[in-house]
Design goal:
Elements lengths: L7 E11 L2 E7 L13 E4 L2 E8 L3 E6 L1 H6 L10 E6 L18 E11 L2 E7 L13 E4 L2 E4 L3 E2 L4 E6 L1 H6 L10 E6 L1 H22 L4
Antiparallel strand pairs: 1-2, 1-6, 2-5, 3-4, 3-6, 4-5, 7-8, 7-13, 8-12, 9-10, 9-13, 11-12
């Protein structure tokens, strides 16, 4: 489990395709890997990854084909920076929201406009995710916990307003228009929407079964 509060930006220093999978190695400050063990969970651009090897300032991971197909990890190249977050421990403060690291879909940056020291961003989402995205609701974009701004009801697009600290701490300012981003919608919202839809469907079926 994660908070969506990105701790640092990790540099991708190793990337090797092998048997349909990707072997990745990232480099970060040694303080961000203090106490890390093989098998630990770390989110890279919002993807929950398992540490398979590490040193004082590097950590290695494997991304299987299913992960490559479901996320933007296959877009990354050696030298790229990725959002990095260690998994939460019991008792840690959660300054974001509950994030699983399970990507629900890949969107793209439709536009990004600088506003003062912040940024105004529109993200195009897969249409099947839009029922779970609400104004002032939570969403995770490349592992960053954010609050949704306005929703475009005529197209699958939602708004984000990024503060300077978010731009400083994350990879957003390195993304370009049409860049693909990992999206994780809020799980509680998914459960509520799906439960309501299921109840409505059952109610409709019960009405349909009544005699004329």
């Amino acid at each position: 489990m994660y908070s969506g509060i990105v701790q640092t930006r990790a540099k991708l220093i190793g990337l090797e395709a092998h048997d349909g999978a990707l072997n990745l190695t990232v480099q970060v400050g040694h303080d961000h890997l203090e106490g890390v063990k093989i098998g630990a969970s770390i989110a890279l651009d919002g993807i929950c990854m398992t540490v398979v090897d590490h040193s004082d300032d590097t950590a290695s991971f494997n991304a299987v084909q299913a992960t490559i197909e479901a996320t933007n990890i296959g877009d990354r190249r050696v030298g790229d920076l990725l959002n990095f977050e260690r998994s939460l421990r019991f008792g840690d403060e959660n300054g974001g929201h509950a994030v699983s690291g399970h990507v629900y879909g890949v969107g793209r940056i439709a536009s990004m406009t600088t506003v003062g020291r912040g940024a105004h961003v529109f993200v195009e989402a897969p249409p099947d995710l839009m029922p779970f995205i609400f104004t002032k609701g939570f969403i995770t974009v490349d592992g960053t916990s954010l609050t949704v701004g306005q929703i475009r009801r005529t197209e699958p697009v939602f708004e984000l307003n990024l503060i300077p600290e978010t731009l400083r701490q994350t990879v957003f300012n390195l993304r370009e228009p049409n860049g693909r981003v990992n999206l994780e919608v809020d799980y509680q919202t998914v459960v509520i929407v799906q439960s309501i839809n299921a109840a409505i469907e059952r109610r409709g079926q019960s009405f349909d079964s009544l005699p004329d």
